[in-house]
Amino acid sequence: MRSLSPFVAVVLSSSLMALPVLAAGDKAPAAADAKPADAAGAKDAKDPKDATPTPAAGEKPPAAVDKLGEDSPTTTNSTNTTVSADGPTSSSDPKEVEGKTYYFVGARYRHTFLPKWILNLFVDGGPSVVSIPSAGIEAGFRKDGFDIIGAISYADYSMKEFPFKGKSEADTAYEAVKSNLKLINITADFLWGTDFSPKFAFQYGVTAGLGIVLGDLHRNQLKPASGSAPGDPNSYVHCNGPKDGGSGGYCDDSNDHYGEYSDSSWFNGGKKPNLYPVFGPMIAFRYKPAKQFVARLDGGFNLFTGFFFGIGLNYGI
Q1: Starting from the edge strand earliest in sequence, which strands make up the sheet with 123-125, in order?
Q2: Average pLDDT in the 47-58 region?
Q3: Which pick of 71, 77, 246, 279 has the fewest CB atoms within 10 Å?
Q4: More confident of the two residues 135 and 244
Q5: What CATH number did the domain enclosing 176 receive?
Q6: pLDDT tens-digit profile of 238-262?
Q7: Cα separation of 149 and 191, whole Å?
Q8: Residues 6+ apart with CB under 8 A from 303
Q9: Is residue 281 in a domain?
């Protein structure tokens, strides 16, 4: 009885911106031309509003008045340096402003691996180690330290032939499995974080999505080689057809997994999924040396494929 789909084994095996402008006070208007004194020697009178107080001996003149006051706007000087209340910062300063949304586009690479001992908790046989490369494009946005990063990636689940059977199945259920599977993954990473500085941050969150399954999964029943005793499935050979295994129960007629047999997809009544889930916890180290550039090292555990680690390189738009 072969109740466990080998696709599970293949996928299991494949298992984070003025200086205030000071203006001098109003200057007193130039004195008007003096008029001839009248017979009493009277002098011209000046409007008190236009007069500039004359300091008494020993007093200092009044200080210049800042017309703009404390709320002077930020300015940019001739060297393209932004001047703000926090001090000068270059136009490429990585510091992020609270409440502002930042957008990025870029590329990623991730590698999934699953040690055999974890695989064998669920099945017998399988490859010695699962190693699945994937690469793709990504785009996301970030606000107040929270990132959402969407991605489309291509993963190669191809594997050389290996023996496989369900954990509770008999030795006669061993089959040779060969994968030419590829997955197109559509995922989203949701990352919160703690900033150590404007450049460095530690992030944590989850990744989730779906994979579109492409390619073939070939299976062929196995039997012990001639003159060999059962027990070492790595030495088993292909059955040519039903009843090719003698009287030991190998090469039975419970299925037609012989020759070039390939599993059908769910849509065609078979056991090979058309879609496969992606979900699991992840962490990342985010490095933003400039406003326009972000690098991210990440890793985590996909509950359906295994451990993964990777890198993402993004450009700010």
Answers
A1: 123-125, 159-166, 175-179, 217-223, 237-238
A2: 55
A3: 71
A4: 135
A5: 2.40.160.20
A6: 999 998 977 789 999 999 999 989 9
A7: 8
A8: 279, 280
A9: yes
